[in-house]
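Field: COMPLEX_INPUT
Field: COMPONENT_COUNT = four
Field: RESIDUE_TOTAL = 752
Field: MODE = joint
Values follow.
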Amino acid sequence: MSLLDEPRSAELFAPSQRRSRTIDWQEPGPVARAASTMPGIEVMAAIRDGRLPPPPLAKLIGFKMAEVHPGRIVMRLDPEQSLENTVGMLHGAVAAALLDTAMGCAISTELPAGQGSVTMDLKLTYLRPLSVRSGTISAEGRVVKLGRQSSYTEDFVYDGGGKLAVHATATFAMIGAGPQHRSPPQDS
Amino acid sequence: MSLLDEPRSAELFAPSQRRSRTIDWQEPGPVARAASTMPGIEVMAAIRDGRLPPPPLAKLIGFKMAEVHPGRIVMRLDPEQSLENTVGMLHGAVAAALLDTAMGCAISTELPAGQGSVTMDLKLTYLRPLSVRSGTISAEGRVVKLGRQSSYTEDFVYDGGGKLAVHATATFAMIGAGPQHRSPPQDS
Amino acid sequence: MSLLDEPRSAELFAPSQRRSRTIDWQEPGPVARAASTMPGIEVMAAIRDGRLPPPPLAKLIGFKMAEVHPGRIVMRLDPEQSLENTVGMLHGAVAAALLDTAMGCAISTELPAGQGSVTMDLKLTYLRPLSVRSGTISAEGRVVKLGRQSSYTEDFVYDGGGKLAVHATATFAMIGAGPQHRSPPQDS
Amino acid sequence: MSLLDEPRSAELFAPSQRRSRTIDWQEPGPVARAASTMPGIEVMAAIRDGRLPPPPLAKLIGFKMAEVHPGRIVMRLDPEQSLENTVGMLHGAVAAALLDTAMGCAISTELPAGQGSVTMDLKLTYLRPLSVRSGTISAEGRVVKLGRQSSYTEDFVYDGGGKLAVHATATFAMIGAGPQHRSPPQDS
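Field: COMPLEX_OUTPUT
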């Protein structure tokens, strides 16, 4: 027994209710290879300036690298409907995308060529809902402690009015090393 | 001074390296209004069965509601390139999207019409990298404790081979109530 | 089969290896009743100045309230051997005691008489080990967002040399209200 | 100006309101050296059986190792007043002490002699308050994933009536190695 009758269901799926969007991105493999020869802060600056393509997910979600500083990165997003959850707010994963990227890239700004990091754990606290009416959203990621085996970062996400919407902290495992040791993250 | 020369940059942006994908979704407003008159587990079953459209972000990321049980939801995803980060793995926000949704929907299965929840905090631990070669990814969200003001959930994300890839816990704030406020979720 | 032979075990339990310490505290019930009639910041100042007894656990662990500011509290600890774990470092729960207290008290400084908070969740990241050789440890808790139903705080724990040892964030549920429920904390 | 008058303050500090308790423990250094030659599960069994002294903090808080299994440890505590916070509940750090220990020891049960772990991050969610009226509290820590560089664990804390009071997850950095490499955790 369903409480959703057929006519209602048909109406919700009507073509008049359909929206669509085409996204495009650049093949990430060649980008990663080019980036692996550059110091992290150069890679970030090149993405910010449009000389290196951003990763596919950045195009999918629609966020951009806005500022690159040693140990600090700002990402920006102009939200739109495809990012909404069922109740018409931005899905929590949208902020997660911005801030995970901002924190990982903040670490990269401190690393030499060939080194990187992968997220080990991520804790988000949602303090204020975000929606398509929130204006341009920004996520500021900064390095709290850079380590040899792991690094710790935090991030503040603000809505367009400058109000704090999400706070996050994350620990990243450090991977790779100088030219002589470029192994992928081993699975422990 | 940049280490990325012009010819290299042009090559990375070459049309031959461009990929694209068109996503479509249904306008979420009417869906939310229809859903607000149904018990949560009916809404989830209707989305699973294709009688109610999923939220826009589910179409953007590409995940589907696969199983609906009282207090437990399974989401599934067949990953593809637009979900990748710079180094060709799935971006951490992809798992966040699946598991945040699975946990929030698991709470919904226990709620009467007109009630819902919003994520207060979310903690993810990444245990194994995911990629387009991971097979069908599944996220099982379950309610640990249902409360009147907040509820606590956990989620296990597995790769296609059944290996645990991500574990998450989340606290949700309980919101709304039907017009008659019929039987709020009991505080266990 | 045990690898720990009898003589070795006896030696480890020898009276010459025994240490002891007597702790004392004041019965907490009357303190809580007295405190319930005072604005939070007055309660904190009274504990800092020795006019109100600290809670029993503060005497057990040995930490003291050192600074009281609106929205910010500093706790201090001179560590000693009874706080050690098996490998001779301070047990992780020691920092947890300081910082959970500092954050909860930071919220109290913003609350009128009769209102308080309880910890909902607490996330600690250990960045540097602490020991009895760490000098005077300090934990600075501050309110990030004060809300009507929940509040969010963060805390930095430093060793005696001023190096960051632990970072923590916590969400507290807001409880109680004075008889007249005068001016609840505004939701910023 | 203080709202706490002198006579009231004197009364709260009256000898009739004073409680005290003497704790004792064994010097931890020799215990650590003895333990370093035994497989972790043997060390845990020896502590459980009273052949090895527990760490000082376990005596301070009053918890005991109750069960030792491969990958799983149960700690128990009979709470008493010195563990209380200002409002007469058990301080949040008490559960933190039990569960951090239980999880770290659960990892130890899987390790050979000379290896150990240190807490990197710890996330606790408080689901039900604990007090001296909660009966015997138990904390069950278990290994979710054992890794070479880090391991992931979870813990459920129950009150004496078997109700879930706290849930926690933690990541530990793996330290030490076989007899040939017994370096302390380097500070990154």
